[in-house]
What does this fold into?
Amino acid sequence: MWVDTLDPADAAAPARPGLAGDEQVDVCVVGAGYTGLWTAYYLLQADPGLDVLVVEAETAGFGASGRNGGWCSALFPQGAERMARESGAAAALAMRRAMRETVDEVGRVVAAEEIDCHWRKGGTVVVARTLAQLRRARAEAAADEAAGGEEGLVLLDAPATREHVRIAGALGATWTPHCARLHPLRLVRGLARAVERLGGRIVEGTRVTSIVPGEVRTTRGTVRCRSAVRATEAWTSTLPGSRREVVPVYSLMVATEPLPASFWDRAGLAAGETFSDHRNVIVYGQRTADDRLAFGGRGAPYHFGSSIRPGFDAEPRVFEALRATLRELFPDLGDARFTHSWGGPLGIARDWHAAVRYDPATGLGSAGGYVGDGVATTNLAGRTLADAVTSRRTPLLDLPWFGHTSPRWEPEPLRWAGVNAGLVLARAADAAERRRGRGTLVGAALGRLTGH
It folds into this structure.
């Protein structure tokens, strides 16, 4: 859907040339998604004299960066949030503040670089539609209050919820201002152009076969470099020796046709809020700039051996479930048409812990494992990597995710069985909560499996 709503000139832009042979550069960035492009952008901001080359197997924004739900939020993967708490109150507070500041930093760059990505910071509202979901909402709000209200998380009753969004059966909600909705493909393409305006180079259609100190080897030549940054997220599992670093889990989306003003008068989302609910199977949505509902969620199976194939981007059963869920949330959709469906993989580390790493001795860096919360987190990762590569000692290098190494995933078939068991348990927990209106043993088992 996102590609169909690009400006015509942008949609028709030709692919960039591939690597023309061996190269010598200062920094080679592998992957032209958000992480790689933010890293290149801030490297060139810090030192315009650097020779920075971004190497992409497909086209800029081909992966999750160009297909996601368009939430630029201060959310952080729960495993990393838990680690921040375990690092101490000061570390946890610094991480949360860094994420909130990052949302505004993305907005600043969008304005400065004149990237027309439909940026609108309207916050996010997460609705509770069962008593079990309402208890989770209250617990989140209480935890934020106990931490001094740092997240700005507000517990809403049913009437206050309807001021943001009118979802059927809403008993209440949580709301936070720290989220903007955007057009993800417009953002990544605008960011690629900004990198090139600063003097960076991007080559496409060039598949990397290995990354070692001083060299990035590709199918079209070898790039020799002082520093190499791996920014491949879900596709990390396709690199030699990295199959068990992250698992690629698919998230799928659907979108309606543009909806009339009469629908939005009833549905709300007038301030550009993104929306979700407190179920176990993650769902997410937004009202787009052209008045569609774009709605996505997990639920697609993990594929044996961490496989990634174009055919996995479509799962008819999941698409139908997403359409049915959206009609349940917004009964006034009536016979509105669904015009688009798409999907793609995201990366999950074994401890659900996003991380940034850089070793000055080898010049090797990496970032990833965002668990679907990467639109803003990638910006923080890119700034952190730029500081590390240019040897600038800043507070970003003291954040608890810098230098973290997650354990490797289990070998197959344990990996396949465990990940898919988690999906089954999440669906079962939601079904049980709808029937009983309270938490269940199934939900408890899900928490133990995922570490949440």
About this structure: Residues 384 and 396 are 6 Å apart (CA to CA).
